[in-house]
Specification:
The chain is mainly α and 95 residues long. 62% of the residues lie in helices and 0% in strands. The protein has two helices and no strands. The longest helix has 55 residues. The N and C termini lie far apart (119 Å).
C-alpha cells in the first residue's frame, strides 16, 4: 500500500538482494570539525557600520545643540546689531 502511495508499483520492481555494501564503513573517526569561517569580511563590515553609527550620533548631537542654542544666538545677535546700529542713530537724532 505504501509503495502505491509513493509512486511505486509492485510488479516492475526487481528482487531485493541482501548483499553487504561494497565499501566498508569506518568507525571511530571522531566528530566532524567544520572549517573555520573567514571573519575578515564580517569584521570590516562591522567596523564600517560602527564608524557610520558613531558619525551619525555625533552629527545628531551637534545638530541638536545647534538647534537649541540658535534661538538664543539669534536673539543676542539681533540685540547686538540693534545696539551697534541704533546707538549712532540715536545719537544723531537726539543731538
Amino acid at each position: 500500500m505504501a509503495a502505491e502511495r509513493f509512486g511505486g508499483g509492485g510488479a516492475a520492481e526487481g528482487p531485493v538482494s541482501e548483499e553487504a555494501p561494497k565499501t566498508a564503513m569506518k568507525y571511530d573517526q571522531g566528530i566532524a570539525k567544520p572549517i573555520e569561517p573567514s571573519m575578515a569580511s564580517l569584521d570590516s563590515l562591522y567596523n564600517d557600520i560602527h564608524y557610520r553609527a558613531l558619525v551619525t550620533t555625533r552629527t545628531l548631537k551637534l545638530d541638536s545643540g545647534y538647534g537649541i542654542s540658535s534661538v538664543l544666538g539669534f536673539a543676542l545677535g539681533f540685540a547686538g546689531a540693534c545696539l551697534i546700529a541704533g546707538l549712532p542713530l540715536l545719537y544723531f537724532f537726539l543731538v
